Model the fold of this input.
Amino acid sequence: MNDTSHRHDPAPDSACADVAPRLATIRARIDAAASAAGRAAGSVELVAVSKFHPLGAVEAALQAGQRLFGENRVQEARSKFTPALREAWPQARLHIIGALQTNKALDAVRIADMIESLDRPALADAVARAADRAGRLPDLLLQINTGSEPQKAGALPEEADAFITLCRTRFGASVRGLMCIPPEGTDPMPHFTLLADMARAHGLPVVSMGMSGDFEQAIAAGATHVRVGSAIFGARPAADPAAPTPLRDESRPG
Done:
């Protein structure tokens, strides 16, 4: 099916109507930041973080030309990125960007094009078992806890080299790069620089960092992927109160 056609119309509400112009603004800012950093056009990919936003918002973004999306929760991602949507939009790609529990690894491996939050050896074990069972392995990013925050997941900086080596030995070329979420309320640049330097030292091409409030700084530091949520989709709706609280909030994609 032609990727420009879709059997469903986006929801007509005003929030969805605002998605296309917001996307255009973010893309222009990404291009300007890349140019200011002396980087080639198209060297930075936009991950549109659709967490908690309705399917209509995703469809509005697809209609506006966006193809790469990030979701925190596997169950929510599965409800939006259905086989029907994938058939209608075959170039759409899904990244799982939030905390991933080991018991959700199989579902994540089945639906994701990339898991950005591989953050510990136990999860690596679960992903390996899931890949064997599913017969597929998505691309992987390793999360580094650049701020050594006790409440946040990810390999600590002093443990990162060993974790990267372990995962590359286990998963080979499927380990594409690194991801981080700098501490809130601090200058993110040292964290962005640290992550980019780690990726470069290990020959990893993908560096996912930067969100709505700091993605231009991340691009200056070498980000290849930026994760932007509320600047595209508007204020995030409240989570379903019946839903379980994730282990980590992919906070500030807004």
